Amino acid sequence: MQSYINIHPDFQLNGQHFDHAQEMMAFVKKSFPKDHNFIQQLFDNQTFIIAKTSGSTGNPKAIRLKKKYLVNSAKNTIDFFRLTPKTTALLNLSSDFIAGKMMWIRALIGGWHLDVISPENISISKQLKSHHYDFGAMVPLQAYQNSDLLHKIDKLIIGGGVVTTALQNKINHQKNKIFATYGMTETITHIAVKALNKAAKKDFYHNPLSVDAYQLLNNISIRQDQRNCLVVEAPELSDETIITNDIVEILDEKHFKWLGRYDNIINSGGLKFMPEQIEAKLTAFIPENFFIAGLPDEKLGEKIVMIIESAHKKENLNFKKYLAPYEIPQSIFYLPQFKKTTSGKIKRNEILEDLFKHN
Question: Which CATH number is 265-358 given?
Fold first, then answer.
């Protein structure tokens, strides 16, 4: 049976070189036992691996991903960011999810020198203080916690959650190039990237209309459905058309702006509001984790509410300075800790269900 995953001769794992897959798997089993099951899947006789979705909008589910599509996705990222053999890369993401899996695959087929460490903040901080890398990937919380060390990674992608204003302010003037990614397990990680800081934007955007937009990687096309949600055609990544619940504005065949989630829309008094657009106006005003949502209301159908991750109530929130009258939350709820996925995404639906039970 055809082998889709081949180890590039330049590949190194934590300084170790391997002549064949069995030698590498033995090293992974001893040094990184949590990743061993995934590495075994990569080199077995199946044409696919089993991956699970993030669970941010529901329970995580297991799906099959063809190995040839994993390779195509990895090559797409390698080509897009011009990452050559012997690229030094840091892997601080769990292989339980697609972002971690794809860093392994990019390194294996691209011939990178990969360092694998724990996803915990203390491990990342310690590693970056003593090493410099060409490429890396983080979730927003990891990037925020290590913002003073991000310059140690020349090209950094951030995915798996919203880049807050607080994080944006910390990275905007850094000299390395930092990008946000758009994608999901079904698209085999990112299909588009957006430059986040000045250093990245300088070389990335050539059309003023596309600034702050996501740019598609190669061999991917998009359109909108009747809901204005993104529809993805990626024949090298998926056998099926991928219909998302992400409301977007398509600028041209290569660029789009993400506006919010269709399933989060609030219908209040006959007016429709996208929570993400309201949140964007408030992130500089409220430093804590929070989100905007709709709860049932006898008069309006739904009322706009805010849920803040804090054990203490905030006094004198001056929403009028930032929001239009109809956007102002009618109720504010405080929770000492939000439910989150293992990758750090807020579980909005579960939190709202709990609130609805008690309010």
Answer: 3.30.300.30
